[in-house]
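Retro notes, structure queue

What went well: the backlog is down to a handful. What didn't: a couple of records were mislabeled last round, so from now on we paste the full input next to the output in the thread. Example, using DUF4031 domain-containing protein from Streptomyces griseoloalbus:
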Amino acid sequence: MTVYIDPPTWPGHGRMWSHLVSDHSYDELHTFADRLGVPRRAFERDHYDIPAHRYADIVRAGAVEVSSREVVRLLHGAGLRRRKGTAQPRSS
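Corresponding output:
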């Protein structure tokens, strides 16, 4: 199981955020997030939004650090990219 995280450079709600993604399946991503207690409400279309204070924990748990550009490339390559306005995937 490999999941990826980009640096916490995305501002929102007074915090900085990272994106946690899988290059294999949403099920893989949900399993990893569940194991770390990341709430399902943090899932948006094709990634989990991870606050900066959780970044180091997520990396220690096995997420591979990549650039934001690489996150998008990985999602496209796996066919998991969902743009705004598309239906929320159930599983895959």
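Agreed that this is the format going forward. Reviewer comment attached to the example: The CA atoms of residues 23 and 78 lie 5 Å apart.
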